[in-house]
């Protein structure tokens, strides 16, 4: 405990020493010593190249790393600015590396970033993941300048990802958020965001830090809170998102549970807002679009199908309280299908997600049991998508996701009517 108090006092002294700043970029971390050095250099170079006259701060909010992550942050710097073609003088740059406190997770790390941003009175902020290998200095410009120059409060990332990366986003969070709140924000849980100091302070007024928002739920919470409360939102194209990607068939149940729990919780909070939304609108996009090469994401289709099939054998008593008889009948048939014929149509999948949202709202069963029973269905849907998109290129995959979004939008009125 004494060590934690000493660390907090050290951070307070560091903030007092800095006084005020214009721009802050936060990097949450947990055992990212291997990758975080590159991220730190990209942030510092971005500050120097695009905001040379601003007082800038980098904050590493760490979850108790044991691999020397914070030491890497402190030791990493750009010594030779001429190597990145800079000859002008750079204004003050400061660095803070501190452990965060609270529930272990990304949201708790962000809370510390928001608090430091408020203490320093910054005008614009960004947060970027610590495992990024594709981040460049331009990311800092693209996440911050729409706030500084154009008055936007929230900058969501837009990037190319491998067709099998981001399956929770593509099958649940993006189409659901889009249909509910009426804004086409392609990566609502992308992980790398820009936002105004005003929005950072607004986030701190919300009492969510003992919930799943403090874990994986923070990204969708930030995006939805910004949209639903009328903050001005845009997107910036960042190129490729290359990071420590996860096999979509691996055990993502904890992440799925926390993200979906946060998403459903936001539906409760903003029901009066989303019930009034009847159309979707594009939001402005900044950045130069270009094609990129992407690292492959390994998938094991049969393992995913086996997990789905096991779920249909074990979880039907729970699903009977949630899903229609027609949907249950379809799932039983699908569990008997060969890999070659394994397909879960968009209409079935969107109905499943809306049905689970209604079940969570009605509190039919314990939420943890409810949402964990969604995992094999999500894995089955992912297996179906992988099979269907096997020969598809990036634009074709995007059109498949666009079709899924339109199905969510078509089913929304019926869902809204059933929400009592």
Overview of this structure, please?
The chain is α/β, with parallel strands linked by helices and about 425 residues long. Helix 2 (about 35-50) packs parallel to helix 3, helix 4 (about 105-120) crosses helix 7 (about 195-205) and helix 11 packs antiparallel against helix 16. Residues about 1-5 have low confidence and may be disordered. The termini are far apart. The chain has 17 helices and ten strands. It has helices spanning about 1-20, 35-50, 70-75, 105-120, 135-150, 165-180, 195-205, 220-230, 255-270, 270-275, 300-315, 315-320, 325-335, 345-360, 365-370, 375-390, 395-420, and strands at about 25-30, 55-60, 95-100, 125, 155-160, 185, 195, 235-240, 280, 285. It folds into two domains: about 1-285, Spore Coat Polysaccharide Biosynthesis Protein SpsA, Chain A, CATH 3.90.550.10; about 300-420, no CATH class. Strand 1, helix 2 and strand 2 (about 55-60) form a beta-alpha-beta unit. Strands 3-2-1-4-7-5-8-10 form an eight-stranded mixed β-sheet, with helices on both faces. It has a two-stranded parallel sheet with strand order 6-9. The longest helix has 25 residues, at about 395-420.
